[in-house]
Amino acid sequence: MLDYSILIDHWDVYMQGFANTLKASVLALIGSLAIGTVMAVFRIAPIRPLNWIGAAYVEFIRNIPLILIVFVFFVGLPAIGIRFDSFTAGTLGLTVYTAAFIAEVIRAGILAVPKGQMEAARSSGLTYLQAMWYIILPQAVKIVIPPMGNQFINLVKNSSVLGVIAGLDLMYFGDLISSETFVTFDVYIFVALFYLLLTIPLSLGVGALERRLAKSR
Amino acid sequence: MFKTIWKKMIGLGLVAMLSATALVGCSSETTTENKTDNKKEQAAETTLDKIKERGKLVVGVKYDLNLFGLKNPQTGEVEGFDIDIAKGLAKKILGDENKIELKEVTSKTRIPMLNNGEIDAIIATMTITEERKKEVDFSDVYFMAGQSLLVKKDSNINGIADVNKEGVTVLTAKGSTSAQNIRAKAPKATVLEFENYAEAFTALKAGQGDALTTDNALLFGMAKQDPNFRVVDETFSEEPYGIAVRKGDKELLDVINEYLKEIKANGEYDKIYEKWIGEKPKQ
């Protein structure tokens, strides 16, 4: 049986961790969606240097372990005088990392929109950016909802990387509670439950969104 | 058929082994009893006699602890503060610092190895505690360890009082007693805990905290590795290291204490201390 006294005795600590995990996830989600979209458009835009930047970003970032990217923000940048606290460094690392995957998801979505859409929009007098924003991206978003949901769920779970750099998230406090009480199993079961509390609604939300958008398609 | 024979044989072997160890246990008990009970010194050999007879001192030391007892991977030699103390002791007893055999011990194995006679003494960063005094006899303190702080060379932190302030961040390793101690003694400071001390030190180097806390023995090693950092003088927990011998080994213990007094008086101790710790011992 689970030892609920651990949860009750350390409720404040669990809550603080949960709040920070939620905060890091939301911030990283918004940030990575923005950077990812820009990078996806860069990779597709009819301007060579932008293609290179987009491709370099994706190939470089997604092929490095997340923890190393986080370390770059936490202990690498301070060497050149830019210092973030552990929570910020962790969230930035997570954002940059997830953005590379989101860029690929969105790029796939854009490419799945029939070419005629862009041609029609351009011949109607829209600029490339306008056509992208008003015509292509809205259609691409519908296509990429399922893989995007995957990325968001991964993001929430990956936020546990903050625990390694003392980022005050769920995982960090889980480690502390476990080393204080010498209980391992129960402590991390509760940590897992708190992650589920974030990821399951996210999963359901993505599913609902998918169904709604499918109707409008 | 064969199976049952095997079972019987294994069973017999186990019984034989058990009774043998039980007998050994009994006999060693009686000898120590003799030693302590009989006030008159009997002809029974003391550990000191045995050491002189075999012409070498066997000491249990650590092989994996920087500055105190570390096996140098290039030379294969074990080196450190504890080793130099042990060699000096061999010189004191046998007149030659090379008449020594070093055996690797860990915190777990050192007392059993001492009590079953594999080693004559333990010189392995062993903290003198009441609990351990029930099992072994300790010499005088030969190194005063304690929890301290590692800070930047130009930092104005000089003790625990300077970190017990809002906005000061202290780094340490997850689940260490150091973390509990610092929380109790500097409740106003922010304590961040990392996976291990190497990571905490990396974070300190990157300016992610104002101080790193753990035992000074570890901190001296870090300060030696990166001279931009120093260990503050104050320790806020006391972990006196002692040399341990078997219970009742009074002759050997007396020689060890005499030796420690000697080297502290003649400056040899200071030399060893400075060689490994990088600074003079504070009084």
UniProtKB/TrEMBL annotation, chain A:
<dbReference type="InterPro" id="IPR010065">
    <property type="entry name" value="AA_ABC_transptr_permease_3TM"/>
</dbReference>
<keyword id="KW-0812">Transmembrane</keyword>
<feature type="transmembrane region" description="Helical">
    <location>
        <begin position="187"/>
        <end position="209"/>
    </location>
</feature>
<dbReference type="GO" id="GO:0006865">
    <property type="term" value="P:amino acid transport"/>
</dbReference>
<protein>
    <submittedName>
        <fullName>Putative glutamine transport system permease protein</fullName>
    </submittedName>
</protein>
<dbReference type="Pfam" id="PF00528">
    <property type="entry name" value="BPD_transp_1"/>
</dbReference>
<keyword id="KW-1003">Cell membrane</keyword>
<dbReference type="InterPro" id="IPR043429">
    <property type="entry name" value="ArtM/GltK/GlnP/TcyL/YhdX-like"/>
</dbReference>
<feature type="domain" description="ABC transmembrane type-1">
    <location>
        <begin position="18"/>
        <end position="206"/>
    </location>
</feature>
<comment type="similarity">
    <text>Belongs to the binding-protein-dependent transport system permease family.</text>
</comment>
<feature type="transmembrane region" description="Helical">
    <location>
        <begin position="94"/>
        <end position="113"/>
    </location>
</feature>
<keyword id="KW-0813">Transport</keyword>
<keyword id="KW-0472">Membrane</keyword>
<dbReference type="GO" id="GO:0022857">
    <property type="term" value="F:transmembrane transporter activity"/>
</dbReference>
<feature type="transmembrane region" description="Helical">
    <location>
        <begin position="63"/>
        <end position="82"/>
    </location>
</feature>
<dbReference type="GO" id="GO:0043190">
    <property type="term" value="C:ATP-binding cassette (ABC) transporter complex"/>
</dbReference>
<feature type="transmembrane region" description="Helical">
    <location>
        <begin position="125"/>
        <end position="145"/>
    </location>
</feature>
<feature type="transmembrane region" description="Helical">
    <location>
        <begin position="24"/>
        <end position="42"/>
    </location>
</feature>
<dbReference type="InterPro" id="IPR035906">
    <property type="entry name" value="MetI-like_sf"/>
</dbReference>
<keyword id="KW-1133">Transmembrane helix</keyword>
<dbReference type="InterPro" id="IPR000515">
    <property type="entry name" value="MetI-like"/>
</dbReference>
<keyword id="KW-0029">Amino-acid transport</keyword>
Automatic annotation (TrEMBL), chain B:
<feature type="signal peptide">
    <location>
        <begin position="1"/>
        <end position="22"/>
    </location>
</feature>
<dbReference type="GO" id="GO:0015276">
    <property type="term" value="F:ligand-gated monoatomic ion channel activity"/>
</dbReference>
<dbReference type="InterPro" id="IPR001638">
    <property type="entry name" value="Solute-binding_3/MltF_N"/>
</dbReference>
<dbReference type="InterPro" id="IPR018313">
    <property type="entry name" value="SBP_3_CS"/>
</dbReference>
<keyword id="KW-0813">Transport</keyword>
<dbReference type="GO" id="GO:0005576">
    <property type="term" value="C:extracellular region"/>
</dbReference>
<keyword id="KW-0732">Signal</keyword>
<dbReference type="GO" id="GO:0016020">
    <property type="term" value="C:membrane"/>
</dbReference>
<dbReference type="Pfam" id="PF00497">
    <property type="entry name" value="SBP_bac_3"/>
</dbReference>
<comment type="similarity">
    <text>Belongs to the bacterial solute-binding protein 3 family.</text>
</comment>
<dbReference type="GO" id="GO:0030288">
    <property type="term" value="C:outer membrane-bounded periplasmic space"/>
</dbReference>
<dbReference type="InterPro" id="IPR051455">
    <property type="entry name" value="Bact_solute-bind_prot3"/>
</dbReference>
<protein>
    <submittedName>
        <fullName>Putative glutamine transport system substrate-binding protein</fullName>
    </submittedName>
</protein>
<feature type="domain" description="Ionotropic glutamate receptor C-terminal">
    <location>
        <begin position="56"/>
        <end position="279"/>
    </location>
</feature>
<dbReference type="InterPro" id="IPR001320">
    <property type="entry name" value="Iontro_rcpt_C"/>
</dbReference>
<feature type="domain" description="Solute-binding protein family 3/N-terminal">
    <location>
        <begin position="56"/>
        <end position="280"/>
    </location>
</feature>
<dbReference type="GO" id="GO:0006865">
    <property type="term" value="P:amino acid transport"/>
</dbReference>
